[in-house]
Design goal:
about 15% strand, globular, 16 helices, seven-stranded mixed β-sheet, homodimer, four-stranded parallel β-sheet, Rossmann fold
């Protein structure tokens, strides 16, 4: 039975796919943040227009600039595998396919947008990219993408991740980035967070807020973001476009497409092209976003206008959120600790085009370890969420006695997360879930200022 | 300028290449170890004959069993890159190509032989594979290769590496292996080594001796080795066979082929097929084996009959060696701390067909870090030795004002070696070199018992 579906280098997609062209509804537009004393310039005007415009338009396909495509060709197309050994061990009639992004130079899908962004920003005269990173996948990707364009890179890394994953910081520094643990004393946001809680584990919201403030104060520096925004989701569709061709070679079409859900770029990358293809062939394919119990923005959050950063500097967007002041427990899947879901994914979820599920940390590592042993690939803790959901689909298929084609994104490898797996092997993985009260506390200010809140009562 | 040369999956080589068919001399045969009271069974009778025979014969090509080839297809052919950014930064007229084995499931070339060995051993009824590992690349590969064949895996890991690289142990355990720090109290060899020096950093020689003793005591268990032996070198030629096709696509033929030199399987893998091709086209290609200053078996060792393991259980082979009791300083490139060079590589070196060079640890990391920044790939410390030599070739080419085509093997990634790079970034890399007296001490007993020693005076 064929286990691997490679594509030739010359089949790297020429276009990204813009799902806005095919949605049967409008995604609510962002709203500028209310002006506030001493606030730095806001985010949107900072985006290169050549990058921003196509991401809010209705053109179905957006050409990938040739220099970006040339970079992609260094490792793309990434392989699609059929997990035949895992199927055997689960004794399931389901066919489990995974698209593996861990063969990229940065070890995850994040480099797909990092290279694209670096290209657009460098062309617009930017000399320094500044960002926040949770697990470090994004920071790594951006630090690698800046070097070829001669740009500096400064990364605010969430403290809990920086300490749990010392190798990540080293890797970014090795690629020439300056890495700052967040909350830091370098920004007002950071100093305020430290004053409120000197032991704060940090959050991606805080790290991004620090990066925004830091970039605003520096010449020809720009804040860049690794997920959530329309243009980031757009860049990641290269994953699904390849997977479409590969599933065609395999002669199957997925009944369910699964992706881990941080802010949504990985999930969008694998699922949007299949959303288009499923419409075209009137297939009833399901799309499943998987989040951690510890940060349940889709399964327990609400669809409200909120900021994408902790300090409320960014424009407000309508999204499924736990509130921008929500700080998730420091689980190993740092990349899934973000408080909100991308506006496009949120709108699709609200319209019933996308499903969501949440998993406990211990179950995620159990499934990640089983997958590693069977398939020889250690999933990043984030990616292991998709593995857990795929395994559940496989078990259900066995119970139903029905074939089912499952496709999931293995967004990155977990070679820099082995401390987390060591915890798992030693039986030390902890499950922590926010209480209703905690979620209500960070949601309340949003509900009170949101005109549609009546339709979305607090949990 | 084209930077990457992929091969399609259906071009995974069908045959390994046996260099013995093309050597203009005989490689001296091994000699059984002299019998000794209480010594466990010796190594050779333990090898599956179907694996062993072709590795000592004169057939030029050995067919790769289809099940092994199917496994190879999961990630092979590996990419060949041209390091255009590094060329630019070095301002060199040299063309630098590298064959990258780090995209394999285990992260290095070691899996090429691990899968082949697992296949042959499982077919001959073996249920448990036992081995020693230095840096952990080999142990990782073997632990991953055993699972598909339903075999157990036990790994004795050199203590200094086990402590410097805790992630390696986790990775092996995650793939189901039992990992034992060596010297251990589980074997007589280990207990004796600990009695002699409770703080012994261990060595690959000791770890292998422990594994041999341990395997000999267990039912249907076999000791397996990750480098040095003819069959291991044979399996690795899949690297060079692919690189030949890829260099053809690039339209160039190397003036020099470079590989890091532990016991020799990586060096043989990249260079043997080019040795054949260079003969065929009467090219004066050079073949350069690169070792660390801390373990200079080729540049400062001698060509003598010696054991491949620390305790002198294995048959004796004629090789460049520092003596099987030599224990190298615990440098980060644990995979290059082995005391001897593979008999075939040694014979080629002795006959002037191969060159050798040694590098200091600090220079190696300086070059490894420069390569990482330029090319976006962090080399394993072992592989960084080849990078250092390639950079020197590039600099020489600039000084000579002459084009030169350089091909080197980047045998693995360094993502599990970031502690070592952190040391480098912090300026803490230490250079240690054995004294002549140290080398003489471990060589003397061999010289005294070797009839040809007169031709090879002590240093």
């Amino acid at each position: 039975m064929r286990q691997v579906f490679h594509l030739e280098t010359d089949r790297v997609p020429t276009h990204w796919y813009n799902v806005l062209a095919d949605l049967p509804f409008e995604v609510p537009p962002p709203r500028p943040a209310p002006p506030r004393e001493g606030r730095p310039r806001t985010l949107n005007p900072q985006l290169p227009l050549s990058m921003y415009r196509p991401s809010i338009g209705r053109s179905r396909f957006v050409e990938i600039p040739e220099p970006v495509r040339e970079e992609y060709r260094r490792w793309r197309p990434t392989p699609l595998y059929r997990a035949t050994r895992l199927e055997r061990e689960l004794d399931t009639p389901a066919h489990l396919y995974f698209k593996y992004e861990g063969t990229s130079p940065s070890g995850s899908h994040k480099i797909n947008t990092a290279l694209a962004q670096a290209y657009y920003y460098a062309r617009s005269g930017v000399k320094e990219m500044v960002t926040g990173t949770g697990a470090g996948q994004w920071g790594t990707a951006l630090s690698m993408a800046c070097h070829p364009y001669g740009m500096e890179c400064t990364v605010f890394m969430v403290r809990s991740s920086h300490r749990q994953k010392p190798y990540r910081g080293t890797l970014m520094r090795l690629h020439g980035a300056r890495v700052i643990e967040s909350p830091s004393t370098e920004t007002e946001v950071g100093r305020a967070a430290l004053a409120a809680d000197p032991d704060s584990p940090g959050s991606l919201g805080i790290a991004n807020a620090e990066a925004i403030e830091y970039a605003a104060r520096r010449d020809r520096a720009r804040f860049s973001i690794g997920s959530g925004e329309n243009h980031v989701l757009l860049h990641q569709t290269v994953i699904g476009e390849e997977a479409l061709l590969q599933m065609e070679t395999a002669g199957e079409f997925p009944d369910v497409v699964i992706g881990a859900m941080g802010a949504g770029s990985n999930f969008a990358g694998i699922s949007f092209p299949f959303y288009r293809a499923a419409r075209e062939r009137s297939a009833s394919t399901r799309f499943l976003a998987v989040e951690p119990d510890a940060c349940p923005k889709m399964t327990r959050g609400r669809y409200l206008m909120d900021h994408t950063d902790y300090s409320g500097v960014t424009p407000m967007v309508r999204m499924y959120t736990l509130g921008h002041t929500f700080t998730a427990y420091h689980i190993h899947a740092g990349g899934l600790r973000y408080h909100g879901a991308a506006p496009i994914v949120s709108a699709m979820y609200d319209n019933g085009l996308v499903e969501a599920a949440s998993y406990s940390q211990s179950r995620v590592f159990e499934c990640g370890a089983a997958f590693a042993r069977a398939e020889g690939v250690v999933p990043a803790p984030e990616s292991a969420h998709a593995v857990a959901a795929a395994i559940d689909e496989a078990v259900k298929a066995r119970e139903d006695g029905a074939e089912r084609v499952v496709l999931f994104s293995l967004s990155g490898h977990g070679l820099l997360d082995l401390t987390a797996y060591e915890s798992h092997l030693a039986g030390n993985t902890v499950d922590v879930v926010p209480t209703d009260e905690q979620i209500q506390a960070s949601l309340r200010p949003l509900v009170e200022s949101d005109e549609t809140a009546g339709a979305h009562p607090l949990p």
